[in-house]
Amino acid sequence: MRQLLATGWMHNRLRMIVAMFLSKNLLIDWREGERFFMQHLIDGDLAANNGGWQWSASTGTDAAPYFRIFNPVSQSQRFDSKGTFLRHWLPERAKLDNKSIHLPHNCGELFFAVDNYPSAIVDLGRSRFRALDAFKHLPKRNDT
Ligand SMILES: Cc1cc2nc3c(=O)[nH]c(=O)nc-3n(C[C@H](O)[C@H](O)[C@H](O)COP(=O)(O)OP(=O)(O)OC[C@H]3O[C@@H](n4cnc5c(N)ncnc54)[C@H](O)[C@@H]3O)c2cc1C
Q1: In the predicted model, is pLDDT for residue 110 greater than 80?
Q2: Residues 51, 61: contact at Cβ < 8 Å?
Q3: Which residue of 3, 10, 11, 12 sits with most ligand 1 atoms within 8 Å of its CB, as the best mutation to test the pocket?
Q4: Is 53 in the pocket of ligand 1 (CB under 6 A)?
Q5: Nearest-angstrom CA–CA distance, 73 and 93
Q6: pTM (2 d.p.)
């Protein structure tokens, strides 16, 4: 989010991670995020942004199954394995080693003593199950 606010751009993968986190882990209406992206993206485009958000939020307009929920930590471990991107945008984490940088809340006192980094706003595992449950119990559409 710091990159978006500073430059007006984010890589497609990050857009997907952000959109899934907001709409699935936090269960916030995808239109809130879509609006925010349109306000800040330098390439903001109604069709691409709206489609990207709906694809990520699994609103039913695309082929992505609703149970696809990216885990921001494993995405980070996979696509920023050395933490280069994290160190650039989150200097508070810069001193952490390549493994801990992805999981600051597991670093206990060292992390908090040094950085006073805000604690996690949601439990990724539990919120994932909550989202899956919410999707499973959506009222069925009456197509008639
Ligand atoms: C939640 C979300 C919101 C998005 N909002 C926008 C937006 O407002 N405007 C916008 O142009 N794109 C949007 N995208 C699509 C994509 O993120 C950007 O097009 C891409 O990041 C642009 O990077 P690039 O110019 O380096 O192109 P590259 O990543 O190098 O891609 C090459 C070409 O493919 C196109 N492209 C790449 N990924 C996608 C994609 N997922 N969907 C459609 N075209 C793609 C690019 O526009 C470019 O023309 C969004 C994606 C998501 C998941």
Answers
A1: no
A2: yes
A3: 12
A4: yes
A5: 14
A6: 0.89
